[in-house]
Fold:
Amino acid sequence: MEYTNINGYLVPNLTLNEQPMQPIGKYGSLRREFLRENDPMTFEELTVSGNLYLHLLEVEKSVRQEIEQAVKSLLEKNPAPDRKTDPLGWTQHMNNLKLQAEELAMPILYSL
Structure:
């Protein structure tokens, strides 16, 4: 490891790896807060190693895919009303399906 002498103190030359800056989204943020509060060792390990951001992006992606598949499955079992004739009923139905799908995907976010 290389050090720089600043005012008589040896400071390590640390650099962060450049990572793409995509927003982590709702589910990545929920995962980050869960790790911070319930598994601080893993949170610190991921932070120090520089892998926290990549982990959160991966969780975001997998949860979104899980929700998308669950909504499709639920929609096949419970068809929505016609969007043109009943737009409010369709919106309410789709919101309910999304909430159900999110509940099914929560174990991904809240697992250690």
Summary: The two ends are 33 Å apart (CA to CA). The mean pLDDT is 91.
